[in-house]
Amino acid sequence: MIKTYAEFWDYYVHEHSKPLTRFLHLIGTTLGIALLIFFIARGQWYFFPVFFVVGYGFAWFAHFVIEKNRPATFQYPFWSFISDFKMISYMLTGRMGREIERVDNTK
Q1: Among 22, 43, 53, 58, fewest CB within 10 Å belongs to which?
Q2: Containing domain of residue 77, as a range?
């Protein structure tokens, strides 16, 4: 059982070891946020759940088909949601590769 966010982050990084998985998370989250903004701007708040369907659809596909693991969202939904954004920020700033190396060296 994971008890701290630091432990969870290392687990999360390990579960996102393949570049295609991370890329699909980036696409799904970006599209989901774009749809969320679009629906809010148009006053169509009732379409809010589409944000989650698109975002998690890409991510879960990546886990089941590419990584062949169970999405962390099922057991740790809040930490997983936050970590998606942390991972994307690391990807966009070129730090994700170092995180993967760091976690792989501790396993």
Answers
A1: 43
A2: 16-106
